[in-house]
Amino acid sequence: MYKNRNxxxxxxxxxxxxRQLRKAVNPVMSQRALADRLQLAGMDLDKNAIQRIEAGxxxxxxxxxxxxxxxxxxxxxxxxx
Length: 81
Hints:
The chain is an all-alpha fold. The protein contains 5 helices and no strands. The chain starts with 14 loop residues before the first helix and ends with a helix. The model has no long low-confidence stretch (mean pLDDT 94).
């Protein structure tokens, strides 16, 4: 059965960029703090979901990608680079 994965085995493209942006915005920003910001933006993700996204162990929907872009004040294209 075919599985949608990157060549490195991860399930998303944006996880590393999300982690880098989280640390660039505030070096001590926790995954829980990011989850709180996302909830304020209307996206219900918890700390565990953030951890799995950053590790490439979880798919990211287009709706979630848009919320990440809003929280980080960037574009979805930047998150996908």
